[in-house]
Amino acid sequence: MNPKYLLAIETSCDDCAVAILGHDNQILADVIYSQIDPHAPFGGIVPEIASRQHLGRIAGMVQKALSEANLKAKDIEAVAVTNRPGLIGSLLVGVQFAKGFAQALQIPIIGVHHIEGHLLAGLGEPDFPEAPFIGLIASGGHSALYLCDADHQITTLGQTRDDAAGEAFDKIGRLLGLSYPAGKEIDRLAQTGDADRFEFPIALRSRDTLEYSFSGLKTAARLKIEKQVLGEQDRADFCAGLQKAVAAALLAKAQLACERTQIKKLVLGGGVAANSLLRAAAEELGLREGLKIYLPSKKHCVDNAVMIGKAALRRFRAGERAAFDFPVEAS
């Protein structure tokens, strides 16, 4: 099956995203409702608020996507939805809506793993590498390395032992008095900072492992903040050094994964992949080590439904379907 029009829904965490793709991966609609404002007063995502926001928005978001694509609901020939991992309440809203939509039209549906979506976000783009490739996904909930083999089977090579990179950014940003989410603000402040003034530890760097750890970085940052009052330039220098350490940690293990597997293709994804220093450092790594680096657009680094749609189209073409009782899994 190669559906002419596919509806994709992503509600794994806070952002509510809907997309409509054509059979050739053409993006006909791509809408995202950000929940930053409802969660900002709490300095992080509140699961109950997230699920209620999805519940109140999902129908309108689908209608908006249909309008943007100039289509009617009856034109949709297949549905894709994120069914794992994520916040269970948020996932349930998206999956139950998708199942109801598909059942009403008697069209096929498929559940997509959130990480598979991030890894395949660039499918159909001319610079996206053919599998096999190594994937580095870094976000508020994930910091991990994956092997996507020639059959697009995905294997976890290593992941964080504690905090994710984006989670560390947010927690340290809170200590600095930055607004949530802190990643963008840290990136902005770092543009005028001296990255060599503040030194931060890079855990597990000398060890022969593909795992990450960012809890020590968080502790080191807290101790530095408690030791002195940071003025405007101090904060800029602090943020520059912080993101330098995070980028170095992420890419050191990614390089090791490429060396171990002898695969010279590296795909980045997740919200932290929008960080300007990480993107520049990844491109430098590619030039230095002869690696093909793929960086998604900044819009498609964060959670979005286009990536879910692209992963689903590949599965539909391979003949896959899902029964309507497929599960929703938080992990």
Largest sheet: 5 strands, mixed
The share of residues in extended strands comes to 15-25%
Q: Globular, elongated, flat, extended or rod-shaped: what is the shape? A: globular
Task: Find the CATH topology of the largest domain.
Answer: Nucleotidyltransferase, domain 5
CATH top level class name of the largest domain:
Alpha Beta
User: How do the strands line up in the largest sheet?
Assistant: 3-2-1-4-5
Distance between the termini: 29 Å
Secondary structural class: alpha/beta
Q: State the helix count.
A: 10
- What's the total number of strands? 10
**Mean pLDDT across all amino acids:** 95
- In CATH, what is the homologous superfamily of the largest domain? ATPase, nucleotide binding domain
Indicate how many domains the architecture comprises. 2
Write the H/E string, N to C.
EEEHHEHEHEEEHHHHEHEH
Q: Write the CATH architecture name of the largest domain.
A: 2-Layer Sandwich
Please estimate the helix content: 40-55%
Give the radius of gyration.
20 Å
Residue runs with pLDDT of under 50 for 5 or more positions: none
